[in-house]
Amino acid sequence: MFELLPDKDCGLCPRLKDFRAQNRATYPDKYNAPVPSFGRKDARFLIVGLAPGLKGANFSGRPFTGDYAGDLLYATLLKFGFARGVYQARSDDGLELIDARITNAVKCVPPQNKPEGAEITKCLPFLTQEIASMPRLRVILSLGLVSHNAVLRSTRHKISAFKFVHGASHSLSDRLTLFDSYHCSRYNTNTGRLTTEMFENVFESIRVQLRSIT
Ligand code: URA
C-alpha cells in the first residue's frame, strides 16, 4: 500500500531525484522534497495542480505557496470562502483552508515545470491514495490537462470518455464531480488564456455544487 506522500528522498523518478539533489546543493536552506498536500482530509473539495514550482512550492513545502500561480489560486479560495487568513506566500503564514485540500499530480519539482509521462505514471498511486483517503470528497478541480488525465486514471475512468474543457464538469460517480480549469499559471494568465473572471466562474460553479450537497 502506497503512503499518501513519497519518501522525502523518493527515487521512483531518477530525473526528479537528480534534480532534487542539484537543488539541495544549490539551495540548501529550502524545502527541496516531495510537497505534501495542504488542507484537511475531511474536506469535500480537492484541487489538483500539476507539480511544485522550483522557487515556489518546492522552496516553501506547501502546494502553490510562493508560486506565481498561487497568487490567483489563494486569492480565489479566500474570495469564495474556501480559505481564511492572509496568504503571504509562506507555509507558516497561518492560512487555513475551509472544506478544501490542495495537492499536485506530481509531488516533486520537475525541470522546466514539465513532468515526463513516466513520472506522472510513477506518482499516480499517491494521487489514488490521496483521493481514496478523503471520505467526504464530492468535488475535484483539475488545473490543466495533465491533472485532468491523472485524476481520471486515479479514479479508474477512461480518459477518452471525459474531454478536458475549461469550465466543464464531469460526473465521475453519484458522489463525485470533476471540474476542469485551465491552469492558473503565469503563462496562461499573461497570455489571457485564463482570466480572473474565467477562474472565478469555475469556483462559483463549485460553490453552487457544494451548496446543493452535504
Ligand atoms: N505550484 C504547485 O504546487 N502546483 C502547480 O501546479 C503550480 C505551482
Task: Name the CATH superfamily classification.
Answer: Uracil-DNA glycosylase-like domain
Which regions are unreliable across 5 or more consecutive residues at pLDDT < 50? Answer: none
How many structural domains? 1
Please state the CA-atom Rg, rounded to the nearest Å.
16 Å
**Looking across the biggest beta sheet, what order are the strands in?**
1-5-2-6-8-7
Which descriptor suits the 3D outline? Answer: globular
Between the first and last Cα atoms, what is the distance in angstroms? 30 Å
Bound molecules: uracil
Which range best describes the helical content: under 10%, 10-25%, 25-40%, 40-55%, 55-70% or over 70%? Answer: 25-40%
* Oligomeric state of the chains in view: single chain
**Strand fraction:** 5-15%
> What characterizes the major β-sheet?
6 strands, mixed
Fold-level CATH name: Uracil-DNA Glycosylase, subunit E
Query: Secondary-structure element order, as H and E?
Result: HEEHHEEEHEHEEHH
Number of helices: 7
Structure in words:
This protein has 214 residues and is an alpha/beta fold. The protein has one domain: Uracil-DNA glycosylase-like domain (Uracil-DNA Glycosylase, subunit E), CATH 3.40.470.10. Helix content is 36%, strand content 14%. The protein has a six-stranded mixed sheet, with helices on both faces. The chain has a two-stranded antiparallel ribbon with strand order 3-4. Uracil binds at residues 49-53, 56-57, 63-64, 67, 69, 104, 143.
Explain briefly what this protein structure is.
With 214 residues, this protein is of the alpha/beta class.
Topology of this protein?
Layout: H1 14-26, E1 38-39, E2 45-49, H2 57-60, H3 68-79, E3 83-84, E4 96-97, E5 100-104, H4 117-132, E6 139-143, H5 145-154, E7 169-171, E8 177-181, H6 186-190, H7 196-211
Parallel strand pairs: 2-5, 2-6, 6-8
Antiparallel strand pairs: 1-5, 3-4, 7-8
Helix pairs in contact: 4-5
This protein binds uracil.
